[in-house]
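fyi for ur records
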Amino acid sequence: MIGTLPPREGIQLYMARVDPHLISGCEVALDVTSRLVKKLEKPQLRFLRRLLGLNPRSMRAVLFTETGLLPIRYRRAIIVLKHAKYWAHLTDDHYAHAAYMESLRLSSQGHVSWAADLRTVLGAFPIPVALPESALESAESIDAVISAVESSCEQTTQGELDRAARTYLLRKRLERDNNGNLRTVVLRFRNYLRIVSVPHRKAFTRFLLSDHSLSVEALRHTDRYRKYKIPRVWRLCRFCQMEVEDETHAALVCTGHPELSPLRADFLRDVFALRPALQSLVLTQPAEDFLACLLLDQAVTSRMARYVFNVLQIYETREMWVPPEHFNLIG
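which gave:
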């Protein structure tokens, strides 16, 4: 893929040109070997990272929570179950139905079969999905299994976000579902991916998903010139060296660069004009909670993206502060 695609059109291109290759034959050759499934995961991950502008070390879970796509192993399993639903619904005079029922019979007797392989596939998920013998005999019971697979996918993906320190801004995200109720929607194409300005959209995406150049993330790993690890408490701000240089500090706290405070004041003035209700939150909420509100409020998304872009540009004007190796004794 060359150049930059709008994410919505990029996903359409993925579904039209990439996904058919990744799901081809999945209803026949089931994913019983995890090593082979990883060969299918690699192109999916590479495409989505390229589409969102993330680097190869970005978290996997956010590729799906932000685009609404399913990880390929779950997508393939659901397609298999939908084929099973079709075969179970056929009348007895169809060869496909006869072969399907024979597979269920072999599985019930403990023999190697397609149905037994499907049980292996569903049991290998991080949150396993149970598949009783009777679950594949009717369309209604297969629908219940499909729902269980979708639930397993959502719980696994949300669990990754909840456990990772770097995605703290996403943990309290509430959005309206199809019925208009506020709840946690795990997999969805997010509104901020519609930001028109490409530099602003990419800056916002990287900032929200913790794939940016601030020290809290950039010093997470060793590199060619620095072989020692730096504890989080020592990834200090390059301007003030008073706090950890993370998203909250850079956007709302730091005054170590002369351009940050006036830039922040202009931004907050514009935001409060758009959303007066946010004015009370800045005084009553912790800084990181207020930042999460700003990042997830669709009414101020475009203005927030421009602000984030400008803040990151300021931080790019100076090299990170890297503590010497003996600082590693503390942390």
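Residues 7-183 form one domain. thats all i got for now
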